[in-house]
Write a structure and sequence with these properties.
two-stranded antiparallel ribbon; single chain; mainly alpha
Length: 170
């Protein structure tokens, strides 16, 4: 069972540190133990934030989370679980994209895939030959910037794709 963050437990831990430091401050009649405890707490949290930043920045090459106890350890474990799930989902999506592109390349008809904004995502060889697309420079470009036939621009702007459109190939 994965431990969960407990605000009460964390506040109790901070309260214990402050109680010990306050007792030492009262016993020695100086605020230095209390100040040192607060500085140590800030430095510890700064160290943990730095460790988390380094780990997340180098993920997935630094696969496992840093070791820590308490709320930092719980947070590292939860973040690690989320990162693993994201990594698996990304790999699954890349496999689907590879299979889709492989299937598209086998088609004789030209196929163009656009994103929501109308920019080129991918296309097959037949579409490249018919429309004159180039792989490196045309990716992520607006479709209507590359296919400038007035009928195509109007067809694309109206977004009524039920009827086919025929235009001459460049």
């Amino acid at each position: 069972m994965t431990p969960t963050f407990s605000l009460v437990r964390e506040l109790a831990r901070i309260g214990l540190w402050l109680l010990v430091a306050g007792g030492l401050s009262w016993y020695w009649d100086t605020l230095w133990p209390l100040v040192l405890a607060l500085v140590a707490y800030v430095l510890y949290n700064t160290l943990q934030l730095t460790r988390m930043n380094h780990w997340v920045s180098s993920y997935p090459s630094a696969w496992g989370p840093p070791e820590a106890k308490g709320s930092w350890g719980i947070m590292y474990d939860h973040l690690y679980k989320l990162l693993r799930e994201e990594h698996v989902a990304r790999n699954d999506l890349l496999e689907v994209l590879k299979r889709t592109e492989s299937s598209m390349s086998a088609l004789r008809d030209g196929v163009v895939v656009l994103d929501r904004r109308g920019h080129l995502e991918t296309w097959n060889r037949a579409a490249a030959l018919l429309l004159g697309f180039r792989v490196a420079s045309d990716a992520r470009q607006p479709f209507t910037d590359l296919v400038r036939h007035p009928n195509m621009v109007r067809y694309f702007q109206e977004q009524n794709f039920a009827d086919p459109l025929t235009i001459p190939s460049p």
